[in-house]
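Incident review: delayed structure delivery

Summary: a single-chain prediction request sat in the queue longer than the usual turnaround. Root cause was a stuck worker, restarted by the on-call engineer. No data loss occurred. The affected request and its eventual output are reproduced below so the record is complete for anyone auditing the incident later.

Affected input:
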Amino acid sequence: MLKYIRYKDHITLYTEDNWYTIESVKNESKEGKEETNKDIITEVKLRYMLGDSKAKVIIKELCKIREEFQLQTKDGYGHAFEIFVISVLHNIDYDIAYNNYIIKGKEDGKIDAIYWSNSKIIIYQIKLDFLDLNDLDIMKLNYVEFLKTGKISNSNTSDLLKFCNDHKEKLQQTICTSYKTVSTNNNKDNYQPKEIFEKFFENAIISKENNIRLELFVPMNNGIATLNKKNNVYAYFVSAKEFIENILKCDSIRKKENLYKLFYDNVRGYLGLNESIEETIANDSENFVKYNNGITVTGEVELLSGTGGAFIITNPVINNGQQTLQNLIEKYPHIEGVDLLIILKNEDNSKIKARISRYTNSQKTIKPVDLLSLDENLRKLQSELFRLTNSSTKNNSFFLELNSSGTKSYNKIVKTIYLKTNIIGLTEFCKLYFSTEDKKLGNWKSNVSTMIGELLSNSVEYDLDKALLVCKTISKYKIYVESIEDKNIRNILKVADLAFMYIMYKYKVSEEKAHEIIDKINYRSFFSINENERKSKLIDLYKSNTIVEKIEEIIKEEKIEEESLLIS
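Output delivered after worker restart:
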C-alpha cells in the first residue's frame, strides 16, 4: 500500500514498501494512505532531510533522551527535541538541560525553555516543524509580565509561572534578554531544525571552541601568583579534590566522560593511568605537589573582582596535565591530602594556544602530524570541508581527520555518517596535497614525518578546491584498490599508492588509466629486470623522487602516440 507524508514547500514524501525507501514529488497529490504515526513521520522527514546515516544518529539521540527522562512516546519526538536543542546550542548534557532550563508541563505559556548564563537570558520556543508566529508574541508578553509583576495573567501558564518562581533570582539578574525560535519558519532569530542537527555533528566531530565557561576557586589562604607584568599568567595551589569538584560543577562537564571537551588541544593524548601517580596518591599524597608538574589551563581568563580568588575561564583547554587529571578523577573522591599546582594562561589567540600545547608537551616526543593537527589553517580547512561536503549522500561527504586526543570521542559518529573510504587521514592528505606541488613523491613516501615537520614552521593557506579534489582522489584510490580481488595486484597498488593518486590528480585520469601507467612503470623499472640482477625492492622505486620522471616519461610517450594516431 502506498503511504504518504506532507512535507514542507509543497513536497510529498511517499513509499510503497512501508518507508524502507522514500520517494518525493512536488506539487502533486498521491493516492494512498496518509501516515499518522507521529514518530514515523519525524523519522521519515529526518531521513529525507539528513540522509539515512545521519538520521540514524539523531534518532538514537532522541530515543536516548526519551528513555532517560521517561518522556511520552508517539509525539514525534517533540519533547525530546526541546532538550536536544538546548543541549546542542549550549554544549551541555541532556540532564543539565532538562533539570535546569526546560519548562515541564503542558501549561508553558508558549515557552519551551529559558536558558541563563552570565546574566543573559534566552527564551526559547522549539518546534520540529512549523511555528505559529502568534506564539512568539505570546511568549514575550508572558515573560515580560512576570518580570514586571511576578505574575502571569494569561491562561495555560501555571507550569511556566512555577518555573519562573523557582528560578526567580536567576531571572531577575537579567542584563540582556533575547527570544529565539527553532522551527521550519524563516522569521528573524530562528534556527532551522537542520541547523541544529548540523551543529550537533559539528560539535561532535569538528575542531572548534568548546563553548565552555569554567569557574575555578582559589582557597583564601593559598593566594595567587601573577607570573608576568601583563597579568596574563596566574599560578596557585589548590587541593586536587577542590579542583576536580570545580570542573565537575561545570554544566558542560558534570561527569568524567565529558572531560574530553577540555583536551582537544592536548596533542599527547591520553597516555593511560600512570602507576607512579597512583602510588603517590595512595602512599605519599603530601609530596604529590612536589613530584607533579601540575595542570596548565589556557583560555580567556578573568579574575573576578571582589573575591579572594575566583577565575572564569572561557573556552578552556587543558594543555598539560591530562594524565594527572585522569588519574586523580579515577581515584576521586579518595584523594585527600593531594595538592596541585594550577597554571592559568590568559590567551584566546588560537595560534598562540596551539604553540602553548606544543611546547608544554615537548618533554615527550610527539609525532609531527599530531603537532600539525593544531594548525589554525588546517582546522579552518577541516570545518570548510565539513560544511562544503556535508551532503545527505554518503558518497559526496568527506571528513578530514585531524590527529589529537580530543577526537577520540567522535569515532563512532564519524564511522556511522561517513564511508570508510571518505575518512581522510591527515598524513595521507598532506602526502598528496604537497607532493603535487613539490613533486618530491619519494620523500613524502619514505620520510613523511620529516616532510610534515617542515610544515610546522610555515603558515600554509590551504586551497579549498584543491583540498576537496585531493580528498576525492584519495577516496577513489581506496575504493579502486578494495575492488581488486587479486591479493598480489592489490599489494602492488598499495606500494605505489602515492604515485597512483598523483597520476590521477595531476593528469585527471581514471583509476584504470592510472593503474595502466603504474603497470608500465613497474614492468620497465622492476619486473623486466632479471630477478638476480635487481638491486632493490619494488618499494624502493616509489621511495625515490625519480618516480616523477618515470611518470612523466610514460605520459609523454602516450601523448605522442595519441598525436600520431590523430595525424594518421
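Verification: The CA atoms of residues 58 and 197 lie 7 Å apart.
Action items: add queue-age alerting; document worker restart procedure.
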